[in-house]
Amino acid sequence: MGFLKGKRALIVGVASNRSIAWGIAESMSKQGCDIALTYQNDKLKKRVLKCAEVCNSDIVIPCDVSTDEEIQRTFKLLKKSWDKFDILVHSVAYADREELDGNYVEVTTRDGFLKAHEISSYSFTALAKEALPMLNNNGSLLTLSYLGAQRAIPNYNVMGIAKASLEANVRYMAAALGEDKGIRVNAVSAGPIKTLAASGIRNFGKLLDYAASSSALKRNITIEEVGNASAFLCSDLASGITGEVVYIDAGYNFYEKGADLDL
Description:
The chain is 41% helix and 16% strand. The chain has helices at 20-30, 42-54, 68-78, 104-107, 110-131, 158-181, 204-214, 223-233; strands spanning 8-12, 34-39, 60-62, 85-90, 135-145, 184-190, 245-248. Helix 3 runs parallel beside helix 5 and helix 5 (110-131) packs parallel to helix 6 (158-181).
């Protein structure tokens, strides 16, 4: 019997079977969790429906986090299938492509800065607010961050600032939601993975190679590894963990032996 048997999880932000959100959904499903998936738009719907089939889910709901009305609609639709659930996974981030290429100060705009924060950070709070009446006691919220929240990563630019906001968001949400219902809020900071979202970052292939050669384990990670760790964090096995950012990056965040240096 899996350690998530009897739990229900809403996974927001699946884009394809290569996305980190899918790795999380699949791992949770293997541990006995019932899964509901969302898709951003009709372009992605077919891909998400295929993912839902793999984890035996018939709950696939549209969710555009850019407006409160759309988020409210998502939970109204979810309530037709579930009255309560246990886990919310937020795997949503966005920045204009032209702001992920070049000198940060030169390419960042006011509108782009605000949009990146609204979609990548505020949407986590907005989803939690609407989910709260449906969340069971001792539920769990999880979001996805990246090392660019702590370090200046070339071309990651405004997305790094938004991820720093998201990590602060995790701590404040954990403090706000822990007392009354025992709801835990955490983030996983995954190493670079070749996903649809990552394709918008210039020279991402070089970043991938550098992370592999500079990490303690001398390799990149997989969506399955992120999924397994995320499933644990959202389970009762991690009942004492909240407000944390957990690194799943083969040790790159603390080690980083220079790829081009013979040390």
